[in-house]
Amino acid sequence: MIWGHKLNKLTPAEIVLMKKAGQITRDALKFIETLIKPGISTLELDKFAKKFIIDSGAMPSFLGYEGFPGSICASPNEMVVHGIPSENIILKEGDIISIDLGVIYKGYNGDAARTFPVGKISDENSRLIEVTKNSFFEGIKHLKVGHRLGEMSHAIQEYVEKNGYSVVRELVGHGIGKKMHEPPNVPNYGKVTDGPLVTENACIAIEPMVNMGKRNVWLLEDGWGVVTQDGKPSAHYENTVLITKDGIEILTL
Ligand code: MG
Q1: Which residues surround ligand 1, an ion (CB under 5 A)?
Q2: Distance of alpha carbon 110 from alpha carbon 240, whole angstroms
């Protein structure tokens, strides 16, 4: 893993815009959550998200990104990330659906993801969603100015594996600011001595992707969708985070 040598450094004025981008991202995800029920297609979710983001004065950053056709990534069940919204993917009772959503507001980016239940889901799937979310919060306990970024990455991996799940390695979090993806890479695994030093007034997107079974993934033929090789479910939890000398601020919660 090439981490990138340092985090970005944002001015106070830029941080104000990052916070606004984060709020819109959060609100859009909360809105999408209210629409998730059996019978809705992921393309319908995509259309609602696009309208919500534009009505909020921002733009969906995923749309057209390296040719991506949607405003959200919608990844059901064994799909890890980057699912292309489709009228043919209709949510059904018992599914889990990962929604990843990014906005750009006055030139600054917000990025967040959640895995939602569709109707009533199995205990196994709800535990997967919980552990994935908790791994983020375990990780940020170790995100401190002057420490190695790897301390956080290691904590996420340790928590996930202790709970009997695995961490995806092919995809990682990232710096975020004027661009959605900036250095450094922010893996969800590694050693405490890995990675750049954490510095203040930096923003990163931390996004554990957790598989119920083995960590290995395939890329689908559409060039986007990533699925587990063993066909078992996967969950995703992401927030854009601001690091200050006083601690961590989660901009998309
Ligand atoms: Mg991201």
Answers
A1: 111, 205
A2: 6
| Rounded distance between C-alpha atoms, residue 159 and residue 152, angstroms | 11
Inter-residue contact 61 to 72 (CB < 8 Å): no
Cβ 119 vs Cβ 94: under 8 Å: yes
> 202 to each of 22, 74, 149, 169, how far by Cα in Å?
14, 28, 12, 23
The predicted model scores a pTM of: 0.97
Q: Between vectors from CA 158 to CA 165 and to CA 102, what angle results, nearest 5°?
A: 75
Closest CA to 193 of 248, 245, 253, 151: 151
Q: How much distance in Å is there from the Cα of 204 to the middle of ligand 1?
A: 9
128-157 tens-digit pLDDT: 999 999 999 999 999 999 999 999 999 999
Ligand 1 center–CA 240 separation, angstroms: 8
